[in-house]
Write a structure and sequence with these properties.
By secondary structure, the protein is an all-alpha fold. Helix content is 69%, strand content 0%.
Length: 180
């Protein structure tokens, strides 16, 4: 079965929130994969680069904000490296397989991607703890407040991205395998 034949639903994705099946229109896998790469993968990397720059600036000016956790920039760099590796696996392993169809090995690759999402969730939890729940004091410099806002946005985007892949994309693969 070709991926374009998969008939699942997807409307609120452009807002980062997959819609219930009865409130959506059919999609094709290729369009969904392009959406994931452009809306999520590229955005995550841009946001992480900005967060790293803000963290470095905040750490370098710790005299004005002693609550900035030392090592926050390094923590974000490790998060970015893990995310880049995960995105490469998706873009160069799973997504090409989905564009040409769903060979038997796609179940293994999909399990790996789902494991990556669990790992990312753990990394986000660690970042939230490390960064005081992304809630700086009201007296914190604007750069530190911007960093916390950006970390909250990044966390929400990463969770919406994982939810989209789990509830729409991977669900399509499971359904397709059951129909085969």
């Amino acid at each position: 079965m070709r991926p374009q034949a998969i008939d699942l639903t997807w409307t609120k994705v452009r807002d980062g929130d997959p819609a219930p099946a009865n409130d959506a229109a059919p999609f094709d896998v290729t369009s969904l994969l392009e959406r994931i790469v452009e809306r999520y993968h590229r955005t995550h990397l841009r946001d992480l680069a900005s967060a790293i720059a803000l963290a470095d600036e905040a750490e370098n000016s710790r005299a004005s904000d002693p609550t900035c956790p030392p090592g926050l920039g390094d923590h974000l760099r490790r998060l970015a490296a893990g995310l880049e590796a995960q995105q490469r696996r998706e873009e160069f392993s799973l997504f090409p397989l989905l564009r040409i169809g769903t060979p038997r090995c796609v179940a293994f690759v999909t399990r790996q991607m789902m494991d990556d999402h669990v790992d990312m969730e753990l990394r986000l939890d660690a970042l939230r703890r490390f960064n005081s729940g992304h809630r700086p004091s009201f007296e914190a410099p604007l750069g530190r407040q911007a960093l916390s806002f950006l970390c909250r946005k990044l966390e929400a985007d990463l969770k919406a991205h994982a939810r989209l892949e789990h509830e729409v994309l991977y669900a399509a693969l499971v359904q397709q395998r059951m129909d085969a």
